[in-house]
Amino acid sequence: MTNLKKFTRRNFISTMTAAPVVASITASNHEHETPPDNKPEIIDTNVNLFKWPFRRMKYEDTKSFSAKLRQHRITKAWAGSFEAVFSKSLNEVNSRLAEECRKSDKGMFVPIGAVNIAWPDWEEDLRRCHEVHKMPGIRIYPAYQSYDLTHEDFPKLVNLATERSMMVQIVGTLEDTRVQHPIVASREITFEPIPDIMKKNPRARVQLLGWNDYVNDELLKKFVTETKATFDISWVESTGGLGRLIDGNSWFGVRTPVPVERILFGSYAPYFPLESAVMKLFESPLTLEQMKSVMNINANNFFKQVV
């Protein structure tokens, strides 16, 4: 991990905002130049490779995406595949993802596989993710697949993943419902079953991605007080939203505070501009220690628990 002791909050903000500007000015001669080793580092726990089927994205090819991540001090990215959301051949999707991560940019990308518990033999997909592709976790998309979290196999999935020391990333929102294609709109689901399942398996390591629309304050309190679930920041909105999430001081009233050690940086790039997530780090009045926790310390601690 990078030594950040000499960085103040002001130095950090200056470094993070200046890097993309410098990189763009010198792009013609140093297109893929890596930031200096003594600068702040970020672990992004929520990125996706390949193409989103409904619109073209600027960084949908892995090479340019990796260069973009490095410009913003991302040194490790936990990568799912957009192809996993709608594909009926998840083994093929997982194999392609693992190979792309293996050959791309010196270990920048950590492949996170996918399973669909509504389909037969999903246990075999889980086994291959772990044993064949050496993936540290899986990512599921209940709102976009043909099941919800009341499915009888969901506890089994969490248990089997935990037995294999794999994390489970549960995805809520991928796309604003107002812009979804009408024949493939996401379904209504609930995150209510998750806390009880986690309480029955306290070793389970679960991260919620794009969770905000699915977790009201009552459910958030259960997650915070009764589980060890972690949260990404990709859909955290409003001015100073990250700081308000930590303080429990929402624009809409008092909410359950989320401990900073339970919050992991997750950008949902390239669907969202990477700059959006980076801005969340310094638009809120966080301390330097809080910023460092969200940037990489929490992700490192979470990762160590599942591998």
List keywords for this structure.
307 residues, alpha/beta, TIM Barrel, three-stranded parallel β-sheet
Strand and helix layout:
Layout: H1 9-25, E1 42-49, H2 62-71, E2 74-81, H3 90-103, E3 109-111, E4 113-114, H4 122-132, E5 137-140, H5 154-163, E6 167-171, H6 193-200, E7 206-209, H7 217-226, E8 230-232, H8 241-247, E9 249-250, E10 253-254, E11 263-264, H9 274-283, H10 288-306
Describe this structure as you would to a colleague.
The chain is α/β, with parallel strands linked by helices and 307 residues long. It has a single domain (41-306), classed as Alpha-Beta Barrel (TIM Barrel), CATH 3.20.20.140. The chain is 38% helix and 14% strand. The chain has helices at residues 9-25, 62-71, 90-103, 122-132, 154-163, 193-200, 217-226, 241-247, 274-283, 288-306, and strands at 42-49, 74-81, 109-111, 113-114, 137-140, 167-171, 206-209, 230-232, 249-250, 253-254, 263-264. A 6-stranded parallel β-sheet has the order 4-5-6-7-8-11. Helix 6 packs parallel to helix 7. The longest helix is centred in the C-terminal third of the chain and has 19 residues, at 288-306.
